[in-house]
């Protein structure tokens, strides 16, 4: 069968929007054009890509999901080819889709993206933040080509390279009695309210730390916003744990926290560079992957031992 890039774009847009009308609007084409491309593709393949829901749009079948995943990769390669053809003899160009875990992004991405733009001005990075489940789903679906995230629940389909280990740190209010100590024990706060950063897999990691220390936490608040958790700590509502701790001890609301290392030898989180194992990296993605490895290697901008947070 002959597959046109235009038809692939139409099918992928419909999958992303979940609605033919919205896909047509985004691509600035007629709705029948999108519908015809879907129908022709399904006829050529001999299978159904979408389930039509009356007045509720469309959704992918399992076969349709696999088809769209492959179509995303093919379209990305087509964009690279077009940009390379337009700039023969010029520096490497292209766009890459990068995913990053919510708490890792504000800690590392500003400096990484700024430096990468300096050394590779022809490559545009499209950044998407998410929790671990969203990051993994993004890579598996082809929406993301590379990601920086934790090593939680990484499926066999993904390839991971360790960038750095981040140990757990205790975060308390700036005037907490433990703030004056250089190192503390998790048992020191066993009877105090715990403020949980409540994301898939993240919460399981924190609970595993308490299990290892033989402590049952007294959970006072749960939130998907780490800055909200930090603000509550600054307002003396309890303590929390964190790994990718900000360089500042001031919360958004102006309150202050103190960050202290733990005596216990508790497992760190592993910050990983993740890609799809069976999908070769495009040149622009490969360049960024090497850049990440260099940035976290000895002598790099985030070399081990160089990223300790401000403690006071």
Automatic annotation (TrEMBL):
PROSITE patterns: HTH_LYSR. Residues 1-61 form the HTH lysR-type domain. Keywords: DNA-binding, Transcription, Transcription regulation. The keyword Metal-binding does not apply. It holds the Pfam family LysR_substrate. Belongs to the LysR transcriptional regulatory family. This is LysR family transcriptional regulator. It comes from Xanthobacter oligotrophicus.
């Amino acid at each position: 069968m002959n597959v046109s890039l235009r038809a692939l774009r139409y099918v992928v847009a419909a999958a992303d929007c979940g609605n033919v009308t919205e896909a047509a609007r985004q691509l600035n084409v007629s709705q029948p054009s999108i519908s015809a491309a879907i129908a022709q593709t399904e006829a050529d393949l001999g299978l159904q890509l979408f389930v039509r829901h009356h007045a509720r749009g469309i959704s992918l079948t399992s076969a349709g999901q696999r088809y769209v995943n492959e179509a995303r990769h093919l379209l990305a390669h087509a964009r690279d080819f077009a940009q390379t053809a337009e700039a023969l003899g010029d520096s490497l160009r292209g766009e890459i889709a990068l995913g990053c875990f919510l708490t890792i992004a504000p800690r590392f991405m500003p400096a990484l993206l700024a430096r990468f733009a300096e050394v590779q001005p022809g490559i545009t990075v499209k950044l998407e933040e998410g929790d671990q489940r969203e990051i993994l789903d993004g890579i598996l679906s082809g929406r993301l080509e590379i990601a920086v995230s934790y090593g939680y629940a990484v499926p066999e389909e993904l390839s991971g390279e360790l960038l750095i280990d981040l140990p757990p740190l205790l975060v308390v209010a700036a005037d907490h009695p433990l703030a004056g100590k250089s190192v503390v024990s998790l048992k020191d706060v066993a009877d105090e309210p715990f403020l949980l950063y409540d994301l898939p897999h993240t919460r399981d990691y924190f609970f595993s730390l308490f299990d290892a220390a033989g402590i049952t936490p007294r959970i006072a608040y749960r939130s998907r916003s780490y800055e909200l958790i930090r603000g509550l700590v600054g307002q003396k509502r309890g303590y929390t744990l964190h790994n990718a701790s900000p360089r500042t001890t001031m919360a958004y609301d102006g309150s202050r926290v103190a960050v202290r290392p733990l005596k216990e030898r508790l497992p760190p989180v592993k910050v990983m560079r993740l890609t799809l194992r069976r999908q070769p990296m495009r040149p622009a993605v490969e360049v960024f992957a090497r850049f990440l490895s260099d940035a976290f290697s000895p002598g790099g901008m985030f070399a081990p031992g160089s990223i300790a947070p401000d403690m006071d």
